[in-house]
Specification:
721 residues, GIY-YIG endonuclease, Rossmann fold, 6 domains, globular, binds adenosine-5'-triphosphate, binds zinc ion, hydrolase activity, PriA, PriA_CRR, EC 5.6.2.4, primosome
């Protein structure tokens, strides 16, 4: 090749052609340095025929500057990038960037200087230095990272280096990971687990595309079961990717992984330090990283010899990315397995309707684990009709639920109360003038957080100190908290059961792996009697002494009334119910609701999963909703209200007339303002036969906008705000 076509990592540019200088050899997929004006941009050598561009005459071509010292992106990964860009109506560059997600890794082998405490003391101790030294105990990182950890300036740390309190350590950026041992621990599987595991392992040995839906009730041991095909892949020298929905869950997973395989897996998520990132990236690309556990962004890593993907808690909506490229990692993972030819396991106790439908139509093979491991029984579920069993005035828990907790306290067992609302109260208003505290950037109320004495917006992060007087009328002591959040429920438990030790478990309190580990240890050591938590505690956790689960407000999730509200409520409540009675003691679940007759709630109470799924399936079929029809939303936004409205109107006016495709809107989005941007929304609902993406690309490609306008396309949306 003396001339190549490159995909450059700049969404505004099309593909560019370059000359290959004398003496340089390039392959397809090679990551190269492309001159662009005075700059150099990262490019990937691509099949010219798959990337239509303008044919610049040879004499006008500029030469490539060089090659990055990393393996070329393999062809199946290039196909995955193309598929993702095409399906989610995104630019190839923005998808490709997710594969090259470590700038440091491109630079090749390197070492860096990190610093750690020596145990020495500075000549002069200041409060700042003392605080820094305490925070850095056991840490080793670059000065900049340490400054972030300690919350001090880099200058303070440089001072400590000069005084010999911190010492430099040269670290090889690519030092190898310890080897995982497939047979480190032998686990005795139950008969049903063994049968499932053998099905998966056989597929790993086959090295062919095989999508599985591992449908196992809560506590059935899905993790232990899919560890067997992981081990099989390791024995064959192939790599494995395990996707988890939330980093807060990984702590528990890492522990179990280490017990089974003797080492920790390689971690990948957005808060890795840049050095950890490049080390992981390079080990993935070289094939040395055996098992990678990560958030959805791990999906695009350039594995050298991937042999299995597991998507755990596959129904979780956090696999859907809600900005940038709006992809669903669960679905893209299946495509990756397809392009590269290996099995994929989607594991869940409450599969998405889409996944069940795929199983029903024979595309996925369904593997069931119908009972809990070790003879544990599924919990008894009952509803509390709040219109009849009213909580005392100003309180939120019915007496029967409080009595249930009191019983557990007496027996030394634990309870979990679930309410998917962080903070103390979702709305603060003035008793005097009726003023409601609203976010200045979003169409949302500010949520009171009593622990931190602040009002916060959960959408944009805006925060203000809790006011002493109303900001509108100036009246002091007139603000009332409306409705409960988890903090308020925790207060109520403390008031009604003063002897209970209560812990609030949310992303505010479990915001680091360390905190999550402390929490698990405290529950296991029985230092906590009552956990009050958000969706964060609904899944993954295994606490044998937890025998009562209370759902504080099962109706909350149904209020939005969007397409997925029923399914989401079912999944959340079924998952949190699944935390009860996982050990030898039986579990009980009490669901507080004002609508015990609603089909979701009734199905949950009856433990009748099939009833829920068949009602939901019929509803979706009637509505032409996924998986029977397709949805896409188009969000038009701008910091200027009239500009957003105008742009949305122009898009609406040019809507194409396509058979079997309905286009609704534009209308102000339910969140009409978000992070300071005004938003309008159009919704498309089409039959499956419609080439929805082509329609969208064609349509939006013809409309121009002022630079301040953003048009985001969301195919198979999960968020309807
Ligand atoms: N074969 C086994 N041998 C020993 N312990 C097992 C076995 N299978 C499962 N367990 C234990 O049973 C408990 C439940 O298993 P696990 O957490 O994998 O269930 P799960 O199906 O993922 O549940 P959930 O969907 O509720 O998270 C865990 O403590 C696990 O270690
Ligand atoms: Zn906000």
């Amino acid at each position: 090749m003396n001339r190549v076509r490159c995909l450059v990592l700049n969404a505004a540019l099309g593909p560019l052609d370059y000359k290959v200088p004398e003496g340089m050899t390039v392959e397809l997929g090679q990551v190269v340095e492309c001159p662009l004006g005075p700059r150099t941009v990262v490019g990937i050598v691509w099949e010219a025929e798959r990337l239509p561009g303008t044919d610049v005459p040879a004499e006008k071509l500029r030469g490539l500057r060089g090659l990055y010292p990393i393996p070329p992106l393999p062809a199946p990964l290039r196909r995955l990038i193309e598929w993702t860009a095409d399906y989610y109506v995104a630019s190839l560059a923005s998808v490709a960037r997710m594969a090259l997600s470590s700038g440091g890794a491109l630079k090749g082998p390197a070492s860096i200087t990190e610093y750690r405490l020596t145990g020495g003391m500075p000549e002069r101790m200041t409060p700042q230095r003392l605080a820094a030294m305490e925070a850095l105990e056991g840490e080793q990182a670059t000065i900049r990272e340490l400054a972030g950890i300690a919350g001090v300036s880099e200058g303070v740390l440089r001072g400590l280096v000069n005084q010999g309190v911190l010492e430099p350590v040269e670290v090889d950026c690519d030092r190898p990971y310890e080897e995982a041992r497939p047979d480190f621990a032998q686990i005795e599987l139950s008969d049903q687990q063994r049968e499932a595991a053998e099905t998966f392992s056989a597929a790993v040995r086959e090295k062919k595309f095989a999508p599985f839906l591992l449908d196992g009730v809560t506590g059935s041991g899905k993790t232990e079961t899919y560890f067997e095909p992981v081990a099989e892949a390791l024995r064959m020298g192939r790599q494995v990717l395990v996707l988890l929905p939330e980093i807060a869950l990984t702590e528990n997973f890492l522990h179990r992984f280490e017990e089974r395989f003797g080492v920790l897996p390689v971690l990948w998520h957005s808060s890795l330090k840049s050095t950890e990132r490049r080390r992981a990236w390079r080990a993935v690309a070289s094939g040395d990283a055996q098992v990678v556990v990560g958030a959805r962004s791990a999906l695009f890593l350039p594995f050298a010899k991937l042999g299995l993907i597991v998507v755990d808690e596959a129904h979780e909506t956090s696999f859907k990315q809600e900005d940038g490229v709006r992809y669903n990692a669960r679905d893209v993972a299946v495509m990756r397995a397809h392009f590269e030819g290996f099995p994929i396991i989607l594991a869940s106790a409450t599969p998405a309707l889409e996944s069940l439908q795929m199983a029903e139509s024979g595309i996925y093979e369904k593997v069931d684990l119908p009972s809990r491991f070790g003879g544990a029984q599924l919990p008894d579920i009952d509803t509390i009709d709040l219109t009849e069993e009213k909580p005392p005035h100003g309180m939120w828990l019915a007496q029967r639920l409080v009595d249930g907790i009191a019983e557990r306290l007496e027996r030394g067992e634990q309870s979990l109360l679930f309410l998917n609302r962080r903070g103390y109260a979702p709305l603060t208003l003035c008793r005097n003038c009726g003023f409601r505290y609203q976010c200045p950037n979003c169409s949302a109320w500010l949520v009171e957080h009593r622990f931190t004495r602040r009002l916060a917006c959960h959408h944009c992060g805006h925060e203000a100190p809790s006011p002493a007087a109303c900001q509108e009328c100036g009246e002091p002591d007139c603000l009332v908290a409306c409705g409960p959040g988890v903090e308020r429920i925790a207060d109520e438990v403390a008031e009604r059961l003063p002897e209970a030790r209560v812990f609030v478990a949310t992303s505010d309190t479990l915001n680091s792996p360390g905190r999550a580990a402390e929490f698990i240890a405290a529950v296991e050591a029985k230092e906590i009697d009552v956990i009050v938590g958000t969706q964060l505690v609904t899944k993954g956790f295994h606490f044998p002494e937890l025998t009562l689960v209370g759902v504080v407000d099962a109706d909350l999730g149904l209020e939005g009334g969007d397409l997925r509200a029923g399914e989401r409520t079912y999944q959340q409540v079924a998952q949190v119910a699944g935390r009860a009675g996982r050990g030898s003691k039986p579990g009980e679940v009490l669901i507080q609701t004002r609508h015990p007759e609603a089909s979701v709630i009734a199905a949950l109470a009856a433990g009748d999963r099939d009833a829920f799924y068949s009602a939901e399936t019929e509803m979706r079929r009637d509505a032409g909703a996924p998986p029977f029809g397709r949805w896409a939303s188009i969000i038009v936004s701008s910091e200027d209200e009239s500009e957003a409205r105008e742009a949305a109107r122009r898009i609406g006016d040019t809507r194409p007339d396509v058979p079997d495709c309905m286009i609704l809107g534009p209308a102000p989005a339910p969140m009409a303002q978000l992070r300071g941007r005004y938003r309008y929304r159009l919704l498309m609902n089409a039959r499956r036969s419609v080439q929805l993406q082509d329609v969208i690309r064609h349509w939006l490609g013809r409309v121009d906008h002022p630079p301040g306008v953003r048009v985001a396309v969301d195919v198979d949306p999960y968020s309807f705000v």
